[in-house]
Amino acid sequence: MTEPDKDLPQWKIHGERVIYDNKWVQLTLMDIEPPGTPRFEHHVVRLHHVAIAAVVDDQDRVLMLRRYRFVPDKWGWELPGGIIDPGEDPAGAAAREVEEETGWRPTAGLKHLTTFQPMVGMVDSPHDVLVGRGAERVSDAPTDGEEAGTVAWIPLDDVPGLIERDQVLGSGTLVGLLQIMAMGIPGEAVTEGR
């Protein structure tokens, strides 16, 4: 396969300055120069690197949470996930988040499914989506009360309807679920009809 864009000029980045910074978000202005265009400053939002887990059981149900999110002011279903702590790998972070948010612990190692940027033109926030089969109940309630919601095993066959009814929140959840439904779980044959 050839690289179709290798002969195209790249944008020049002359520098970056932070205009707001705290432990959750950083806003910068980047001094950039696209090819054939005058230099200008462009806002960039920098967020943390996160890991999201799709845990699927032997009945082809995926572990999800239904919770309220105040930014869009709505309830919806999500895969468990969160910020990768310093020194932590994405699989470890995803497994930790599953347990903290759901009370379930993945029983098999989580495998990398994909990495993506949810809003590549202005926001820097790498998202690693991981997938694994099986989990054991280790707690009756999530240990992270701020992340609490309804925990349920949702049949993968029900996911298209949830998406159609706008009941799935978050790009990481959508990317993970759609990839599993389209391509299956890495190392497994794709189920008929998915």
Automatic annotation (TrEMBL):
<comment type="similarity">
    <text>Belongs to the Nudix hydrolase family.</text>
</comment>
<dbReference type="InterPro" id="IPR015797">
    <property type="entry name" value="NUDIX_hydrolase-like_dom_sf"/>
</dbReference>
<feature type="domain" description="Nudix hydrolase">
    <location>
        <begin position="46"/>
        <end position="175"/>
    </location>
</feature>
<dbReference type="InterPro" id="IPR000086">
    <property type="entry name" value="NUDIX_hydrolase_dom"/>
</dbReference>
<dbReference type="InterPro" id="IPR020084">
    <property type="entry name" value="NUDIX_hydrolase_CS"/>
</dbReference>
<keyword id="KW-0378">Hydrolase</keyword>
<dbReference type="Pfam" id="PF00293">
    <property type="entry name" value="NUDIX"/>
</dbReference>
<dbReference type="GO" id="GO:0016787">
    <property type="term" value="F:hydrolase activity"/>
</dbReference>
<protein>
    <submittedName>
        <fullName>NUDIX hydrolase</fullName>
    </submittedName>
</protein>
<dbReference type="InterPro" id="IPR020476">
    <property type="entry name" value="Nudix_hydrolase"/>
</dbReference>
